[in-house]
Amino acid sequence: xxxxxxxxxxxxxxxxxxxxxxxxxxxxxxxxxxxxxxxxxxxxxxxxxxxxxxxxxxx
Length: 59
Fold this sequence. Notes:
By secondary structure, the protein is mainly beta. It contains no helices and four strands.
């Protein structure tokens, strides 16, 4: 929602609405766990579901 003269703006948002889980990358690391290969999954920054409201004012 925005004012006609664009002096203020209101935005509602939800990130990861459908709770999709994905991995940013998968990494094989060797030598760290008793010389065994281990696969590590790196989660992205926004892997959790959250929402909010943003309000901006221009002057």
